[in-house]
Amino acid sequence: MFIKDYIKDVYNAVRSLLTGMKTTGKYFIRPGEIITQQYPENREQLHLPERFKGEVVMIHDENNEHACTGCTACELACPNATIKIITKFDITPEGKKKKALDTFVYHLELCTLCNLCIIACPTDAIKMAQTFEHSVYDRSQLTKKLNQPGSKIKEGVE
User: 100-135 pLDDT, tens per residue?
Assistant: First the structure.
């Protein structure tokens, strides 16, 4: 029994080795079919799939305006409290108080990239960016303020 198991193990090992060598030989002959990317050497040409999610970002236009109304729908949709919306009250030209975004705090270290906040946003103010190099030495750098300094809400967004 021992010899039979030993020969069977050697046979399976050689078979596995030849299967791997066949794949290696195939890519050696046809290098255009290689799908493995040599990161970070190819950082400039790196092409990520469209569905890749790296982090939540707030969209600002060239006038430093965003579409976030401070409704907190994204904060409520987040299952692990990654987002914290701090609001303030602005006075409209008609003299009425209106809730507005003061600070959009995003804790990247807590985010599971589930995309629920993006789906919940009624004004499409936030989206998933394709950035993925988030390593830092200080954990506090993973807490981000998404609205840019001096930014304001776009005209017509309610």
Answer: 899 999 999 999 999 999 999 999 999 999 999 999
80-103 burial by CB neighbour count: b if 16+ within 10 A, else e? eebbebeeeeeeeeeeeeeeebee
Task: Tell me the one-letter amino acid at 36.
Answer: T
What are 42-58's pLDDT values in tens digits?
888 888 888 999 999 99
Residue found under tokens 């050497």: 41
CA distance 74 to 51: 20
Cα–Cα dist 22/59, whole Å: 48
Contact yes or no for 69/152 (Cβ under 8 A): no
What's this model's pTM, rounded to 2 decimal places? 0.74
Residues in the chain: 158
Given a contact cutoff of 8 angstroms between Cβ atoms, the answer to whether 121 and 74 are in contact is yes
Longest distance between any two alpha carbons in the chain, whole Å: 93
Dist CA 82 CA 110 (whole Å): 6
Buried b (16+ CB within 10 A) or exposed e, 29-44: eeeeeeeeeeeeeeee
